[in-house]
Write a structure and sequence with these properties.
Blueprint lengths: L4 H21 L3 E3 L10 E4 L5 E9 L10 E5 L7 E7 L4 E6 H7 L1 E2 L9 E4 L1 E5 L6 E5 L16
Amino acid sequence: MGISFRHSAGFGKRMEYNLVGKMLMEGLDVYMPLVDDHGVDCVIKKEDGTFIEIQIKARFSEVTDSDAALFSAITYELTENFYFVFYSERLDLMWIMSSEEFLNECVTNKTGKNKGKRGIWFNGNRTDKKTGIKKEYCKKQFEKYIATDISRFH
């Protein structure tokens, strides 16, 4: 049986609150806008008084095989003090990237209905030679962005 629309539609918002809760537990001052018109899910006031904007992107565990950490159709241009937090439920991995890092690593669609939009695919999929079982993994070039906590924002 497939996942219900109600469950999948609310997943992103639940993950936003989950990650914001972790930020709060780590002692960060976190503010959430009432309206998400600018792709900002939360704002953090750092100890030095500066602010950073965060966009949280999450992938549900029930996505197509090989797509556990595929984030696509993102409209974005370079913004100072802006970070992305990407989370894959199936891989149970989180990546944190600055705006500049994201733009250096992403792919920009050249044609089609999503022309100009950006995407990033953190995972690959390989078959274990001994067991014959396919397994998703984080691509080597993205391992440096893996985060086990939110310390990068302190």
